[in-house]
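Notebook, bench 3.
Goal today: get a predicted structure for NADH:flavin oxidoreductase/NADH oxidase N-terminal domain-containing protein from Phytophthora kernoviae so we can plan the truncation constructs. The sequence was checked against the plasmid map this morning, with no discrepancies at the termini. Length recorded as 1088 residues. Pasting the sequence as submitted so the record is complete.
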Amino acid sequence: MASKLIKLFSPMTLGGKKNPVHLQHRVIMAPLTRLRTGESGVPTDLVVEYYVQRTTPGGLLIAEATNISPTARGYFGSPGLYTVEQVEGWKKVTSAVHEKGGKIFVQLWHSGRVGHPLNQPDGKSLPVSSSAVGWEDVTSRPVTAEGRHSYVTPRALETDEIPGIVEDYKRAAEYAIEAGFDGVELHGANGYLLEQFLCDSVNCRTDVYGGSVENRARLTLDTLDAVLSKLDSSQVGIRLSPFGSTFGCTDSTPEETYSYLIKKLNPLDLAYLHIVEPRGLHPTGPIQPEGGTTAFSRPLYDGVLMTSSGFDRASGIEVTENGAANCVAYGRPFISNPDLVHRLEVDAPWNTWDFKTFYMPEEGPLSLGYTDYPALEAKLFSALNLGGKKAPVQLQHRVVMAPLTRLRTGEQGVPTDLVAEYYAQRATPGGLLIAEATNISPSARGYFGAPGLFTTEQVEGWKKVTRAVHAKGGKIFVQLWHTGRVSHPLNQPGGILPVSSSAVGLDDVRTSSVTREGRAKYITPRALETHEIPGIVADYKRAAENAIAAGFDGVELHGANGYLLEQFLCDGVNRRTDSYGGSVENRARLMLEALNAVLSSLDSSQVAIRLSPFGVTFGCTDSTPKNTYGYVINQLNALNLAYLHIVEPRGYHFRGPLVPENGTTPFCRSLYKGVLMTSSGFDRATGVEITKNGLADCVAYGRPFISNPDFVHRLKTDAPWNDWDRKTYYVPANGPLSLGYTDYPTLDMKASLCTHFSDHNGILMLNLVPPQWRDPMQWGFFCAASFVRGISCFMRYAGVFCVFFGMALIFVIGGLVAHTIVSMVLLFNIFFNYALCCATDPGIITASWKKEENFNDDEEEDLEEEDDDDVETGFLPRIRPSAMAPGGTCTSGSSRVQLPLVQLVDPQSVHVYFFTFLVWLAVGSYYAAFTSYKSAYTELTREQYVKMLVLAEVAPLNIPAAATLQFAFAMAAAVGLAVSILATWHVYLIATAQTSVELQINRHPRNRRLHGGRVTSPYSTGSVHGNWELVFGRCNYKILSLMPSTRLPPNPRTLKKRQSVTRNISSARSSEEKPHLDEAAHSPDIIV
């Protein structure tokens, strides 16, 4: 079950009309004056580094207070936005932040009286303010080029000068957008110019900018209007400090003043209103209202409310959870913690900031206390540049999704929208995905359902995938694949033999080839002729070019896990005597030729390779792996590839020789000079450790990505992982293609949820609504089926309840009315149960509107039933009527479906139920009548009872007519009791037979939407009834141990007819070899 997401770390959208800014979390970096830009106010590369360090994907930074004009400057070293040079300097900052997936606003600033003549353009003019009201503060002095000096009394702005100030704000806002900022924040807080006009302790004017609150707020509102005339409202925010006293700027009636101003902001639909709590550096001043400034502002402001000053993790979570604020801006914690967002997420301790380096350090470089604070996060979550010559791919973290074969593309190998959704779910900003192994040609295919990159349709299909990944800021490579001997003629064009380095078969009883007709044993391949090998190289080159055309950022050649390139490399398979066999140089020739061919069309930054030096997958081994791979890796050093991907031999097929003492990764690290990626069997601790000690630059995770679409987030926060279901690694045996593919839950799952039951251990789970269920027709079937199923289960339990309740009434109460009620209820229960069972019997329904030939066709085949202790199957072909055992048991390809504590029904055992019926009838009748009359006529002796019940001597007992009628009802109740119990028990037992009728019906092509719109499917399609069963059939399998099912086997006539057809087809094919369905013991490259 997904854990509850803390709202502080959940996505949100800022306000605005046209293009509101979307954030991935609500932790904002507040504007922080740092004074690192010198006299010119131009941001340097050091400033770029500072902001980049604090950027997170989808996070918002508010750049430090930035002067709107030369006369606005209050502090030496503060940046500006009024010259071309400053704009160009800021462009470097915004570009770097955007490259990491972050958002950035800038705070526009006029300091007013909080300055000094030395900071003015001429070095002697007085700073300006609303009035000539000075302020003496012994704790704070303005920073100038000559050091700190005392504040001076400013001069009051003339009325005709004020429009010039408004124009400066407007121009600076335009410069900000030109510089690449996502928006601007007007600084109307902390005692600077806009607040100096707003607060009556400073504003003593008598013109239209002084006196009433309307006049004092005029400059702020005029400035906002001017900026909004050039920018969209989604690009504009404002900061206020209603109850602050910074720099002596206070108001006598702050509630009235700020209530007026905040209400005026509502129609403007700003990106946000930023409120400062007066508990920071200057806590003196009037007492804030009860609940704080944020609580005061929330009822007044309708838009996005940001709060700041003095918040820690707990208070930040609280203020967002209770809705008092939409997001929280942190200031000083961001100074000393460049990874503050991560620290907040994992509740890690903070670095302590050094107040002496908040601004320019007195001694030391400008980086002191600026860009030198250490990050908490492990190297695994830090940025990385892949290798290559021209434009290496830049990653924001080192958690890579390994290539995972999922077989969801059918006969044509064309990725569908479902595939695009799958990869988009797992994409992260700046994260690398390696798309599943993809065939380079028709003859390269080893598995039915694997995608390709050799047709135009396949390229177009992959374009949807790459666009979806890039839209989320991710990077994606694709693995180029030739399976070689790991194939079957059914997967080859024209049914030809698969190829390899030599005609050496794969003798592995644990695995088999996945074909359109099910699983088939591997066969001995044919050896490639020498003149054919250049064609294989050309296929790799062409597929690589198609990959780039499809939008991939690069390609990874699959030279591992027993496939073709490794079949040439390892002397356990390669027995050739030509230039591609014998010495290690010859055996490595095909791999290096393929790499060089791809490099002739792609930059080295777009090319990588995967190797498994000490693996034994598919029996592909080498007698001297250290020598062989030592040679290959040394050859790779000269190519400057994007990365070398190493597979540790500790996955699913760990058999064979021991790896080097320290493991495969250290062995390769000592040889390879470029970016080294390792994979197979890593968890969080080992991934962190191996990147920390430098043995690998990044770690590829496989299976965890299958069941955790938000796996990177889970690793960062050390959250628990979803368990993967191995039965749905490939095409699920029963259910839509999305099952076990796009329906795993995330930690912060916010989409609509639908309750369904997982195939995994029968545990109730909540999962994302599968794409197939987003069709209104599907929901109609789902709702109708759920209603009938619910009514059935209710009535079945109601029947049991009525039985016990009726027994209680008969044995305890007695009486004519009670017996009448009980009898009617029990009889109704019997009628309802049998009527409902008949109505929902798949055999009856299909017999009435479906022809027998729809269940059988020319491709009929028998499925061999496996032993109960076999390993579960990851891929199941079509279920045919021949899978129906005589007793109604669905063999379902690999394992029979049988519930605990419930015996399956044998149609030959009907006499058992008849005998049981007689027993219940006799026992129920005797005790019902006996106890009823015992309660009504306590004066009767036992002998009289015997005469009444056994000898039917009623007349001599002088029993009144009413009592005789009561006896009749008692007998009816007894019969109803017996029949009801028998009906309930009977239906419950035979319902657990779990026939394959619904799977047979599912072969009807009407249900094309379940497999991406294709006309035919080798897996499961469905009719109207098939839809119904397909939607809630999974629920049925898992809750039968808790409540009975309504599903019955088909009626005997229909079943007998089908079995007859099946026997005829089976006998006609008796001479043909049937494919054997074995367990899914796939290679590590498929499951990683």
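Residues 637 and 673 are 6 Å apart (CA to CA). The radius of gyration is 38 Å.
Flagging this for group meeting.
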